[in-house]
Amino acid sequence: MKCYHDLVRERLIVYIDGMDFRRTGIGRVFENALAGLLASDAVEAVQVVIPESRRPAFESDYASHPKVSVAYAPFEPFSPGDFLLKQRLIDRFSPRADVFLYPNMNVPLFPRGKVVFTVNDIIMMTPASSWHPVKKWLFRFLTRRALSRAAGLVCISETTRHEVGRVFGHVPCPTAVIHPAIGNEFHALRPESYRVEPPIAGDYLFHVGIRVGHKNHAGLIRGWIEARKAFPGLKLVIAGKRLWEDDVDRLRAELGLGDELVEVASPADEQVKALMANARAFVFPSLAEGFGIPPLEAMAMGAPVVCADIPVLREVNGDAALYVDPGDPLSIGRGIVAVLSDPAVRERLEGAARSRLPHFTRDRMAGQYLEFLQAVAGSRFVKS
């Protein structure tokens, strides 16, 4: 990729799409990017469109910021209005933004200006996905359309960049790999403050993530059952949104699981932090990911991480996690037992986590985004 360090920077006006505000991990990427852009002296103003349903939360945190211009959309993300009507709201901002950043694939069908499109993953196009075939087709269509109109492409991992090339072929626009950050609060937190009143009695493993096929809840539960042979009192806490009847429901009934399997639906951020801080281990046996923020957050909260041995999680977590075969419950169970029974393993993971986490700060991520946005808005810049 071209080097843009020799550009003379001017103050940018940036549009950053906020339809995912306070929705899953992509919403956190949006907030970290927004905060970084607002803090930069190289940015004159930031324009955003936010769903009307998220207005109170956004106004509480950002609406009074002098750099922010906001429009509220009377439709939700990934609705027809998101693709057909959002551009009208964007066009009302004045002056017009120099570059338009979309942290997700919901780029308007007929965008105007220099668009930077972010691919978070293409899991929907893999066998690991449990989504309906119609949704998979729509995802492919919208991603290909956005790519055809992009002036720049951001992939959140090298693994995702590789997969985009494999599925869609050559991408003609400049491409950057920018790892998401964990929130600044995770770098400053004291995990022990969350251990004064544990949210769950007794020893437990913790997992958080939306309950879809590639998260591998079946492997998680069967691996935990294997680990219970060595630690009979060990509970499993699964947090995350339930979309339909899934493997958690099926295995609870099939295996006769009771209170030892705890489900937490749609947990609040502070609840997740407390559950991470008090867990004996955080287990993340995904079959596929675009990046995978939860293991990093768990490390910041002091929980040792057991995760799937897949390329993207190796890329993100380095030597700060214990890796297991996500397709083998025996491997998952052995990994859990190793972390729970061997103090040397836990000490090694804790030290590696301390070295790993500084790679995922908001300032680093925002600086990379800003550099790339400046490059895409290249007509405003001259080389020295």
Task: Provide a descriptive summary of the structure in words.
The protein has 384 residues and is an alpha/beta fold. It has two domains: 12-181 and 361-378, Rossmann fold, CATH 3.40.50; 187-358, 3-Layer(aba) Sandwich (Rossmann fold). It is 40% helix and 16% strand. The chain contains 15 helices and 13 strands. The protein has a seven-stranded parallel beta sheet, sandwiched between helices. Helix 1 links the parallel strand 1 and strand 2. The two termini are 19 Å apart. The model is unreliable at 1-9 and 379-384 (pLDDT under 50).
Mean pLDDT: 89
Measured by DSSP, the beta-strand proportion falls in 15-25%
Number of domains: 2
CATH topology of the largest domain: Rossmann fold
Low-confidence stretches: 1-9, 379-384
Helix content: 25-40%
Main sheet? 7 strands, parallel
Instruction: Tell me the number of helical segments per DSSP (H or I, 4 or more residues long).
Output: 15
Could you name the CATH homologous superfamily of the largest domain?
Glycogen Phosphorylase B
Tell me the Rg in angstroms: 21 Å
Layout of strands and helices, then pairs:
Blueprint: E1 12-16, H1 24-39, E2 43-51, H2 55-61, E3 68-73, H3 80-84, H4 86-91, E4 99-102, E5 115-119, H5 133-149, E6 152-155, H6 158-168, E7 175-177, H7 184-188, E8 204-208, H8 217-227, E9 235-239, H9 247-255, E10 261-264, H10 269-278, E11 281-284, H11 294-300, E12 305-308, H12 311-317, E13 322-324, H13 329-341, H14 343-356, H15 362-376
Parallel strand pairs: 1-2, 1-4, 2-3, 4-5, 5-6, 6-7, 8-9, 8-11, 9-10, 11-12, 12-13
